[in-house]
Structure formats: C-alpha cells, structure tokens
Design a protein that fits this description.
This protein is α+β, with helices and mostly antiparallel strands and 531 residues long. It folds into two domains: 3-30 and 156-529, Purple Acid Phosphatase, chain A, domain 2 (4-Layer Sandwich); 31-146, Immunoglobulin-like (Sandwich). Helices cover 20% and strands 27% of the residues. It has nine helices and 26 strands. It has helices at residues 3-17, 19-29, 172-178, 220-231, 234-242, 269-286, 349-361, 400-412, 464-472; strands spanning 52-58, 61-67, 83-90, 98-106, 113-118, 126-133, 136-137, 141-144, 156-161, 185-188, 202-203, 206-207, 244-247, 304-308, 312-316, 332-333, 366-370, 391-392, 418-422, 428-433, 445-449, 459-460, 476-490, 494-502, 513-521, 528-529. Strand 9 (156-161), helix 3 (172-178) and strand 10 form a beta-alpha-beta unit. Helix 1 crosses helix 2. The chain is globular, with a radius of gyration of 22 Å. Bound molecules: fe (iii) ion (FE) and calcium ion (CA). Residues 163, 191, 252, 424, 426, 452, 455 line the site of fe (iii) ion. Fe (iii) ion is lined by residues 163, 191, 252, 424, 426, 452, 455.
Length: 531
C-alpha cells in the first residue's frame, strides 16, 4: 500500500474508531444549505486582522485558514450569520496562475473562522493563497505541499518551536522563523497561549513586558480573545504567513500540567471537561487544522501522521490527552513507587498502538516523533541532596515503563533513525534515547528539545541546575537557556540540527544567533557536534 493510501487509511480507521468524528468531517466539508447566509457587510476596518495560516501539508493539498473579525479582542463584531468568502491558491504571488479556488462559509458557531482543505495541488510545490470577503482581500500566505509518497526529495528543512508566553517576551524569534528560507513546515509543540490572568510588573518568575487581556481564561469567549491577543502579534502572524504549520498542543492551551481527565490544580473532572471543551474549540477555531479534527466536547484527536516521501515519516503525538496522572504528585522529586507502574501510559493504549504500527511499517530514512515533553532521562539531582536522583514528574521520566515499551519497540522493529522533537521546558537540550538508562545499552535514537520562543524571558546561557543535569546524565550532550527554536535540515545521509537563539526578548530587535550545530549520520544514533 502506498503512503497516501496508508495515511488516508490511518485517518479513516480513526474515523471508524470514532464515528462521530467522521460524521463531523462530512458535515464540515459539505455546504450547509440550512444555514442563513447573509450578504457580506461593508467592513469598518480590515476584516482580516488575525491574518492567514496554512497547515497539515499532504502531497495533494494543504489546509488554509483565516478568521473574519472586526473586534478580535471583543466579541468579534460580526453579524450572527454565515458569511461566504472566496479563496484562491496560486502558483505565483501575483495570483495570475490560479491552481485552485472556491467559496466557503465563515460561521458564527466557529467565531467566523474558516478552514479549507485545498486539494488537487502538485506535490513538493510552493503556493500562495488568500481570502476575499466582499471588497476586502486578506494578506497573502505562502505554503508548500508534501512530496509525492514515493518521491525521493533531496532534502527537507523545518523548524520545531513553541512555548510563546505573551507576557514574558516579545515574539522576535517568530520574526526570524518567518525569514527562514524554504521551510517545508513548522512543527508547533504547543503552549501557543498561556491561560493565566493579566500580570502587572511580574509574570510568574519573570518580568512582564506586556500583559494578558483578561483574568485567567476558562470560558470559550475568554479563550477566543486570548488566541486573538496572541495572533494580533505581527511577528507570529508573519511566521504563519510564511510557512505551513503542523499544530499540536501541550498543557497551557487548557491549564498547567493537566493530564487526561485530571486537572493540575484540583479541578473536578467534570469541570475540567467543560474547560477542555471550551479550550479545544477555541484552539480548533484559531488553527489551520483538518475539519476532521473538530473537537467532540472535551475530546480532540491531535495525533496524526505525515509522510515526506522516502525521506521521513513524521508522527505528531498528543502526550496530554491520554496519559496517566503524573505520579508522586507534580513537580521535581525523587521517584516514588508509582513511577514503577509497568502499565503506565503517556500516549494511552490506542495512540500507542497506532504509533507502534506506524513505526513498524516505517520505510523512510528518518522516523520523526513530533511531541511535547522530554523523553530522555534527566536526573536533575538537587542542590540540597546531591546524591539523590530527582526527576520532573511531568515528563516521560515519570512513566519509565511507557518509555521502555516505545524504545524497545524501536529497537526490536529496527525503526530507522528515530528522531524525537520536544518542547515544554523552556530550555534547549540534545541527547540520546536508550531503552534502559541503567544499563549501558546502545542508543536507539536522538532527541532535540527546543527552547521557548518567549516563555521565561531573556534567559541565560547556563546556570547551576542544568549544569548539574549535564554532569549527572552523560547521554545529554547540550544545554542552552536562551529563547529561540530548532532548525533541522535532513537528506538521506545526514541530519543537521541548529539550535537558534535570540539573546533577548525583553526589547525588540534581537539578532538571530546559533548556539550549537549537531550532525546525525543515518544509521547511527549518535550526536556529533559540528558547531
Ligand atoms: Fe511552555
Ligand atoms: Ca508545557
């Protein structure tokens, strides 16, 4: 079976697992004649203040997104009716060579956001797209399709980024991502918004250089306005305009350190479910996602597979929705007995089986897992008790049985060139992945942990805590505590990873600097520092 068929089968299997999702996908792709569609109003201001975005590139098409608004930080200011927009995808920026065009409805149920699954495009091709509402045209976005399933692309080039606290730093690094030439995609590992209320002076442990627009967000309306606040940032918009994104989420799209049905802050499950339903609807509305991902109440399917010809398979994972509650209580602590639970799950049984199947069938050179929380062991020790291992109970370290299942599967199934992309901890790390860190077995993969785009302020190069972790964990090769992102370029023989940094986010104009470059040769799970 070719990869496209397999990909579609992946999706339809998921649809079978959840018939409601398949029904929603059908409903979302057919015109809704029952809905009242009113003539496009005369806008008092640009109706596209939130810009455009694209995502989920496949060989034959991509999702394009926009949202109509006259009052993005208020109630949207749109009539309570469906509005029909036109959209165009062209081979050139001047829109003289149109590749696809159509009309679609922006509906009040989705806050007048709109996503179109464009099909019929050529593989491995760059396109430009825009929306037209009455006499108003949106900004023009650039996007790119994936290679054909059996194509042998000479190379791929992409960014892994996320964690963009609005109060704690400017989005200068997003401006630099926008300027990266020829990216195939940007993987966003989540923490696209942060849910906490407006700060004055200090935001958590960091200076607040700007403020959130409301108290802590808990309702659909509040989440919507929080996304709008972030997406009004011109640097973030520029990155969306420049590249397609593979979107995923982490904890702060809902609330800090939530796990499946368990709140990180003691909220009862039935109340967390309401909050998740609001949070995921707002996330879905704001993102260039396939209509089949429309949330079903508090549930959303965010794990999905992508294929980059014979060069890479990319599996986007959801490490929040199906995991067991963090053991031993949240936080950094010595491992308690709960950590030894052999049935512990980070992915949940269904997602784990899906991933194991994908990995066992992987034929591409690079097997990329695009996920959220650190997978490699990181014993951080402690300043007060140097000899006692301590682990962060929100990471794979808290679920060692789940990690061993995955990495043993990788070894036994001879999964080629496992490369794990991670975020979440607001600092950059690189290391190797081993099924058993207590015995000196061979590494089966490498992990690149991106720092944050803005969360945790200007940062520092290194300090005592991470230095202790480097000393205690010989498989960890690199640390940096500045803001920025990871740029990866791969061909059939090697992968080069750059840790790109901005030296400050507390004032505008930071330059882009490289903190390290690592080379991985295909066939060897080994990090070679080359810069
Ligand atoms: Fe974060
Ligand atoms: Ca996080």
């Amino acid at each position: 079976m070719d990869s496209v068929a397999r990909h579609i089968l992946d999706l339809s299997r998921r649809g079978l697992l959840r018939g409601a999702t398949a029904m929603a996908a059908l409903a979302a792709t057919r015109p809704v004649f029952a809905q009242r569609v009113v003539p496009m109003p005369v806008f008092q201001s640009d109706p596209f203040p939130l810009g455009v975005a694209s995502g989920d590139p496949w060989p034959d098409g991509v999702v394009i997104w926009t949202q109509l608004s006259q009052d993005p930080l208020g109630d949207g200011g749109m009539p309570p009716a469906a509005l029909e927009l036109r959209w165009e995808v062209a081979e050139d920026e001047g829109f003289t060579r149109i590749a696809a065009r159509g009309a679609a409805l922006a509906k009040p149920e989705l806050n007048h956001s709109l996503r179109v699954e464009v099909t019929g495009l050529r593989p491995s091709a760059t396109y430009h797209y825009r929306f037209i509402a009455g006499g108003a045209a949106s900004p023009v976005g650039r996007t790119r399709t994936a290679p054909a399933p059996n194509a042998r692309p000479a190379r791929m080039r992409f960014v892994s980024a996320g964690c963009q606290h609005y109060e704690q730093g400017l989005f200068t690094a997003w401006r630099h991502v926008a300027g990266e030439p020829d990216l195939d995609f940007v993987f966003h590992y989540g923490d696209y918004i942060y849910e906490r209320g407006a700060s004055v002076g200090r935001s958590g442990n960091f200076p607040a250089i700007r403020s959130h627009n409301s108290p802590e967000v808990r309702t659909l309306e509040a989440y919507r306005r929080r996304y709008a606040l972030y997406q009004l940032d011109p640097d973030l918009r520029a990155a969306h305009h420049a590249h397609p994104f593979l979107m995923s989420f982490d904890d702060h799209e809902v609330e800090n350190n939530w796990a499946s049905v368990t709140s990180g802050r003691g909220t009862p499950p039935e109340q967390l479910a309401l909050r998740k339903a609001a949070a995921f609807q707002a996330w879905y509305e704001a993102m260039p996602l396939r209509p089949s991902q429309v949330p079903q109440g508090p549930d959303i399917l965010a794990h999905r597979g992508f294929q980059w010809g014979t060069l890479a398979s990319v599996s986007v994972l959801d490490t929040r929705s199906f995991r067991d509650d963090q053991p031993c209580g949240d936080g950094v602590k010595p491992a308690c007995d709960e950590v030894l639970n052999p049935a512990a799950h980070v992915l949940g049984p269904a997602q784990e089986a899906w991933l194991f199947g994908r990995l066992a069938q992987a034929e591409a050179v690079w097997s990329i897992l695009a996920q959220q929380v650190m997978m490699m062991r990181r014993d951080v020790g402690g300043a007060d008790a140097e000899d006692h291992p301590r682990y962060d109970m929100d990471k794979w370290d808290a679920y060692p049985a789940a990690r061993a299942r995955l990495l043993n599967h990788v070894r036994q199934a001879r999964v080629p060139n496992l490369t794990v992309l991670t975020g979440d901890i607001h600092t950059a790390w690189a290391g190797t992945l081993r099924p058993d860190y207590d015995r000196d077995g061979p590494a089966v993969g490498v992990e690149f942990v991106s720092t944050s785009m803005s969360s945790a302020g200007d940062g520092r190069e290194i300090w005592a805590g991470p230095q202790r972790a480097l000393d205690r964990n010989p498989h960890i090769a690199f640390f940096n505590g500045r803001r920025g992102y990871t740029l990866i370029e791969a061909d059939e023989r090697r992968m080069e990873t750059r840790f790109r940094a901005v030296p400050y986010v507390s004032r505008p104009g930071a330059p882009l600097e490289d903190r390290a470059r690592f080379m991985v040769e295909a066939g060897r799970a080994e990090l070679i520092r080359v810069g």
